[in-house]
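Attaching the record inline, Q. Sequence:
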Amino acid sequence: MVKIWKVLSKRFSSGKQRIHGRSRGMIAVRHRGGGLKRKYRFIEYFRQKWLGVCLYVLRIEYDPNRTAHIALCSILKYGIFFYIIAPAKLKVGVFINTSLIKGAHIGDSTLVKNIGSGVYVNNLELTVGSGSKLSRAAGTGSIIVKEFDMNYSLFKLSSKEHRLISKECFVTLGSVSNWKYKLLKYTKASENRRKGIRPTVRGLAMNPVDHPHGGRTNGGVTCRTYSGKIGLSKSTRKKRKFSNNFIIIGQRKYKLTQE
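Structure, as predicted:
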């Protein structure tokens, strides 16, 4: 059992403005407000900056701003400290590195072309040099399905989406830590209030001027959002987005094929 630290050093954090959902005093985002104060921890998403340098894992810490745990790493030679997203089963006191050759241990960062099929990875780059973008939440992990061609590999993400990613992108071996987060059940209203989530009222219980479902006349009306847009079975992704060509099987298409 790995000890999760909650002691924070001021050198690696800064103040963070709370999301209150207001614009000039008016409600801009519903159900937001309150919550406990938080400090933002600086996370290193560009592991390729430390090519050939070994990182020593000092401890695993709790981060209130994300679902996954974070690891405090140090470059002993230069006395540099920073946080990374902790992979599952990462042990304290081990050395991890970033290299252009095949990684051997959990937490090592390497290129996609050095990883074979069936290996779980996290902190994927979408484009070369963009930094980690995918598989950063607790318990998530992506797996290589096949090598599509000389330049791209086909990944299956945690959302079941199949996507092409360049073989020159950096990834980290292993899945993300804290997989038990999805098993948590909040039984008290105060737990959500501490997170900054205010009470939610059903649209059917409102007046017609407040919500499309209001007035208890919901017969024959499709599910709508607060602003009047279709709420179910409607894709909100842009049809002409440049990255659509890299998606082989989308999330929605995968769900339809399983049904």
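The chain is about 5% helix and 25% strand. The CA atoms of residues 249 and 257 lie 10 Å apart.

More tomorrow.
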